[in-house]
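Quick one: structure for this chain?
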Amino acid sequence: MVDLKARPFYLNDEDIAWVQKTLAQMNTEEKAGQLFCVLLKNDSQETIDYVFRLMNPGGFMYRIMPTQNAVNASREVVRRSKIYPLIAANLEKGGNGIVEEGTLVGAPLEIAATDDVTLVEKMATVCGREAGAVGANWAFAPIIDIDTNFRNPITNTRTFGSDPDRVARMGAAYVRTIQKMGFAATIKHFPGDGQDERDQHLVTSINDLDCETWNKTYGKAYKAGIEAGALTVMAGHIMQPAWERAIHPGIKDDELMPGTLSRELLQGLLRERLGFNGVISTDATTMAGFMLAMGRERAVPESIARGCDMFLFARNLEEDYQFMLRGIRDGIITPQRLDEAVTRILALKAALGLHRKTLNISEEEAKKVIGCPEHRQWAAEVADKGITLVKEEKGVLPLTPGKYKRILLYRIEPMGEGYSIYQVSPVLEQMKQKLIAEGFEVDEFVPQPYGEGFTTKYQDMVSGYDLMLYVANLATKSNQTVVRIEWKQPMGADCGLYINDVPTVFVSLENPYHLLDFPRVRTYINCYSGNEAVVNALIEKLTGRSEFKGKSPVDPFCGKWDAKL
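Got it. Here's what it folds into:
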């Protein structure tokens, strides 16, 4: 059913014999278990006991945890698995995608701003080294979505930009590099995010390109990743109506499905037209984009029946496992389709050498690799080459205490309930302290609690400060609808009210599109990552000790003419 000697598995006769023998010895429950990739947030013995009482999963995906916990988790899940498990993480920027102490080398968009493929290779190398040190073998990366819609709240800095050629080139480089290190790469999120302005965590989103344009953009990126040997593809909860209609003429609107549930996209486009022979994983099936498309009891087995091989996460593991088994018993998943999916999963494990692997990791050895000086130096290199001076008012830079002794700092950070885990205010505080160490006097803006007629005098503000410095740290993340500035009350108290009388500089540590909300600021800088390496490099550039080297990999002006003023 599956050509195991072909790309991307390239198995020899001995490996194929192991796959076939292992499959033949499995019962239905064991096969169903291999379909699941289970989420682990820590090394909780209670959680692991619960999982293995229910099933023997094909894989696990780690959320970010301390190194010690990750080492313990890997030892335990390997020890208890009948077949060596896949162990995955979102290794999109560095080892920070799996362990708290991991190195954030650079966001994909930051690396895209360098236009240097060797830095993609360094980032992927760090991912492989640091994640491998705690037992991982599967990277849920690279993201080869194309950030063509600045309003999209989830792609943003997670992508290699809006140029399909660069996305294809950098995505393929990541695939080649990390797979040389014994990992499976995952190109995602098929059929492609970045067109819609909605988040598939919250709604079934749409890639609305026509087939020809899709081929020249997303198709090019997927073809490059597949030809580079990508072992896995992650299907997103994203529809691609043009291709679904081309493959299935007459399909009704209410029959259009996201990639995770579309036979047309999975089999007709990805398998047949793009020639992908590896493992297809769903994206997280806890997302609304999956659950809004079809009732869960049917959607769980249909995702496999229609072409996915692995089922990522569960809403309730016991219930979803029973949904899967019921789908097998009821014929939604045929015996042939079940065996095909499990064959590919076993082939992936054989391609990684897991059928012969003995886990040999320790916390002590892992900590020698994670966050090591070489990796931090690579992060510094990415920051130095990536930070982008988008526009500059003549004569404002560089910033020196002689020119701008008194600075008013405007912090723009996430606000409100539920945002605490996304706050990176220590980085902003580091930036403030570095400015003070340079000899600047830094006050922070605090809005007055009253409105029109009683605000601080305009002239007092103009005469009281030499420079207005805005630093925004609004990061893209899941489960949000926008990444926009929400100005403070009353009446947008922290808007750029003084740009015509006081030199003003705006720095975005993350989202590159803030000129949409502050179009007339005359000096604007994009950094793409809010890590310490970026802050260090940014201070060097603001003070004139280092030149700005990055080139915008997206349109930072958001198509607005006034943003260029």
